């Protein structure tokens, strides 16, 4: 109790401090400059992207000399907690980054403004992202960047085991066969890490089997289907076959660490991994990337990306909306592309990202767009992702069978979804 | 709290004194300098603490209580739902597990008290060389960041590469994946909890031990008592007020355990059903599921449990705590 009240106290203090700061910022703004001058704030969570975001802000000021954009960086771990508090307190940034799981919560509560009047062309962006940021027929977020998933592999381990590298056209069976051959229990080497990760692993495999995590309208759980079961058992079978570390091992030691330290030959990871692997001197020369292996229905990857959204309560709503669209537009995309940190969502601006690291086949991430499926979300995504994490952890550990686990998950997730629409 | 009590008692005394009609003759002088003024001064000194307590403890507690009867939206705004949250809490299948885990953890942490008494007694031995060094060593965990402690112990417990399994392997004992095995996870965390709290408890016990008069020990020597007899019949009873104090704060602390579990286990841990405590349940409801009203109800249940257990301990102290 003591701890919780102190937590609240700190939060309250922080919120009131933020409110005070906002107040003083307002008063000094109006006091010292002419009435046309406007300062808007832009909330982001990734420090690596801050330089690019500042460049985009300057580019906007160049077009609108009376507007200054102030970047507000909050580490991701606290980002959404702080954002929610500051929205309640009326001190949220004018424009801010949004992600898929949180998007509908903000859109359905009227916290962010529709951007339909900003002349955003849906055809300029991957369809999966436009779908992700559309709520009730209106576009509320303009896709800033995207990430798809592909299969990273360690060439040294493949060479040592005499297994051919993964390639386009690989199927689940190829993956399983290769993983089995690559595993060497004596040396503590595994073929792959079959981690309980949604975006990197089972969200993709469920789509590849022809199933879905959630219906397109976000009201029905898809975990009850036999396709979802196949998508899950792909991974649990790999563990059972000894081709992957166990769930317990991957809880103790992060799955990626198995791959980075050469103890796992394959690792499915998002496009964000490219720059990290290229900068790791122990790893850079030994790895490459291939498309995901195909299940019965194809080799779909989920697509996710950050969206720029405008605070509906912003005092400068028009400018905020304009900047949200601008920060996802062609010019901003070019700036991001040059920085090499993320793949810009704006179609046609992705080549620079691919070219930045020519040693890897990064084109696979762009090619994945063609069949990509949107990241599964609903109005209160967090409520059922907590269920996923909890129930699937027992399935992965082998204490509950995949059939029983998914039946339970489908049921409880449906209850959570039904509660949302009440 | 004690400041509040002091403030409350200070006022009536001042009134009584100043308002007494019989004390009329010398009163004028005393009234100016004495009671009235000292009442004001008391307020001045107590004020900041009292305001802090009211604003940052009492008011949030009241707010939490009110919140527990509402269903709150994610961005503020709430509707009154009566006892719904409490009914739902009692029907929550995870509550039993959380209560059990919290109880087990609390009992495990209490094991740390005899350990701390023993170490404090050893450190208090006259003629022990390097006493300062030992005291410092035991106190270091107390001044170490909990996050750092959690991180290091995670590595020690690691099933594949942990030091613990390495050491056990030397003795031919098979290792374990300590933090993911449902039967060992909670115990493993309790060990860290005990270790991290040892330093504070030892300092309190050392102070208690040094308050035991030498004359009592000398008298026991003369009566022919051996070291064990002296420890059991003199040291422990005379140390009982300190033991009581430590057990009260340890129980309160253990019932609120969260940080170690949050940092050492992580979300996808298969051992979570066997380690989820009340505060972790609160965290999941309030911060993962966005259900603040429900989370407030959980927080209140915990407050009641802590209150009851603390009252019980105070009642029981008459049976075993010796005040000189």
What key attributes describe this structure?
heterodimer; A: 422 residues; alpha/beta; D-Maltodextrin-Binding Protein, domain 2; 2 domains; five-stranded mixed β-sheet; four-stranded mixed β-sheet; 15 strands; 48% helix; disordered N terminus; B: 324 residues; mainly alpha; 15 helices; 73% helix; cell membrane (chain B); transport (chain B); transmembrane helix (chain B)
Radius of gyration of chain A using CA atoms only: 23 Å
Question: Uncertain regions of chain A: pLDDT < 50 for 5+ in a row?
Answer: 1-34
Strand order of the largest sheet of chain B: 1-2
Based on the coordinates given, report the CATH architecture of the largest domain in chain A: 3-Layer(aba) Sandwich
- Average pLDDT over all residues of chain A: 88
Strand numbers in spatial order across the main sheet of chain A: 2-1-3-13-6
Uncertain ranges of chain B: 1-31
Rg measurement of chain B, Å: 26 Å
Regarding CATH, which class of the largest domain in chain A? Alpha Beta
CATH superfamily of the largest domain in chain B: MetI-like
CATH architecture identity of the largest domain in chain B:
Orthogonal Bundle
Instruction: Name the biggest interface.
Output: A-B, 37 and 44 residues
Helical content of chain A stands at 40-55%
């Amino acid at each position: 109790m003591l701890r919780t009240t102190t937590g609240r106290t700190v939060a309250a203090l922080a919120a009131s401090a933020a409110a005070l700061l906002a107040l003083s910022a307002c008063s000094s703004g109006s006091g010292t400059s002419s009435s046309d001058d406007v300062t808007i704030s832009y909330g982001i969570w990734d420090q690596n992207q801050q330089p690019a975001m500042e460049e985009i802000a300057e580019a906007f000021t160049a077009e609108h000399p009376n507007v200054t954009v102030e970047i507000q960086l909050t580490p991701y771990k606290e980002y959404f907690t702080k954002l929610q508090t500051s929205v309640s307190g009326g001190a949220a940034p004018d424009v801010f980054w949004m992600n898929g799981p949180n998007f509908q919560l903000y859109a359905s509560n009227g916290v962010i403004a529709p951007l339909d009047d900003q002349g955003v062309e849906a055809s300029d962006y991957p369809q999966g992202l436009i779908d992700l940021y559309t709520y009730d027929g209106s576009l509320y977020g303009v896709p800033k960047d995207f990430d798809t998933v592909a299969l990273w592999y360690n060439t040294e381990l493949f060479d040592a085991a005499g297994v051919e590298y993964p390639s386009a056209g690989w199927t689940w069976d190829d993956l399983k066969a290769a993983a089995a051959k690559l595993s060497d229990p004596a040396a503590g080497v595994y073929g792959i890490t079959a981690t309980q990760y949604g975006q990197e692993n089972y969200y993709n495999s469920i789509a590849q089997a022809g199933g879905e995590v959630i219906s397109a309208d976000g009201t029905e759980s898809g975990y009850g289907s036999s396709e979802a079961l196949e998508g899950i058992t792909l991974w649990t079978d790999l563990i059972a076959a000894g081709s992957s570390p166990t769930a317990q091992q991957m809880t103790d030691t992060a799955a990626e660490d198995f791959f980075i330290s050469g103890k796992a030959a394959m690792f499915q990871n998002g496009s964000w991994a490219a720059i990290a692997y290229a900068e790791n001197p122990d790893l850079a020369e030994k790895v490459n990337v291939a498309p995901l292996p195909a299940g019965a229905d194809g080799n779909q990857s989920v697509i996710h990306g950050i969206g720029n959204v405008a605070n509906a309560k912003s005092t400068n709503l028009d400018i905020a909306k304009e900047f949200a669209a601008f920060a996802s537009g062609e010019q901003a995309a070019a700036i991001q592309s040059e920085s090499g940190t993320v793949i810009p969502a704006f179609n046609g601006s992705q080549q620079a990202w691919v070219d930045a690291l020519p040693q890897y086949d990064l084109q696979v991430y762009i090619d994945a767009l063609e069949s990509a499926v949107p990241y599964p979300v609903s109005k209160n995504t967090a409520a059922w992702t907590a269920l996923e994490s909890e129930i699937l952890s027992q399935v992965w550990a082998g204490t509950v069978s995949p059939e029983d686990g998914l039946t339970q998950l489908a049921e409880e997730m449906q209850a959570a979804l039904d509660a949302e629409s009440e | 709290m004690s400041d509040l009590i002091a403030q409350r008692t200070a006022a009536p005394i001042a009134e009584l004194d100043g308002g007494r009609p019989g004390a009329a003759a010398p009163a004028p002088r005393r009234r100016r300098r004495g009671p009235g003024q000292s009442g004001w001064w008391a307020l001045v000194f107590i004020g900041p603490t009292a305001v802090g307590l009211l604003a940052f403890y009492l008011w949030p507690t009241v707010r939490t209580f009110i919140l527990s009867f509402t269903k709150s939206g994610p961005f503020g705004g709430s509707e009154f739902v009566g006892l719904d949250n409490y009914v739902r809490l009692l029907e929550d299948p995870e509550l039993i597990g959380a209560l059990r885990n919290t109880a087990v953890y609390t009992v495990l942490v209490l094991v740390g008290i005899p350990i701390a008494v023993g170490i404090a007694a050893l450190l208090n031995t006259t003629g022990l060389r390097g006493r300062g060094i030992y005291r410092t060593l035991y106190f270091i965990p107390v001044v170490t960041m909990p996050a750092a402690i959690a991180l290091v112990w995670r590595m020690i417990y690691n099933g594949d590469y942990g030091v613990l399994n390495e050491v056990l392997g030397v003795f031919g004992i098979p290792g374990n994946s300590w933090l993911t095995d449902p039967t060992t996870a909670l115990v493993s965390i309790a060990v860290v909890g005990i270790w991290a709290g040892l330093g504070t408890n030892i300092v309190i016990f050392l102070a208690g031990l040094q308050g035991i008069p030498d004359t009592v020990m000398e008298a026991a020597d003369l009566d022919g008592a051996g070291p064990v007899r002296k420890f059991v019949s003199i040291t422990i009873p005379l140390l009982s007020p300190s033991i009581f104090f430590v057990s009260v704060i340890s129980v309160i602390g253990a019932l609120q355990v969260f940080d170690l579990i949050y940092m050492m286990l992580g979300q996808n841990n298969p051992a979570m059903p066997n380690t989820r405590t009340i505060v972790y349940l609160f965290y999941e409801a309030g911060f993962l599921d966005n259900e603040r009203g429900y989370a407030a109800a959980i927080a209140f249940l915990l407050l009641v449990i802590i209150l009851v257990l603390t009252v019980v301990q105070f009642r029981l102290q008459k049976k075993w705590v010796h005040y000189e």
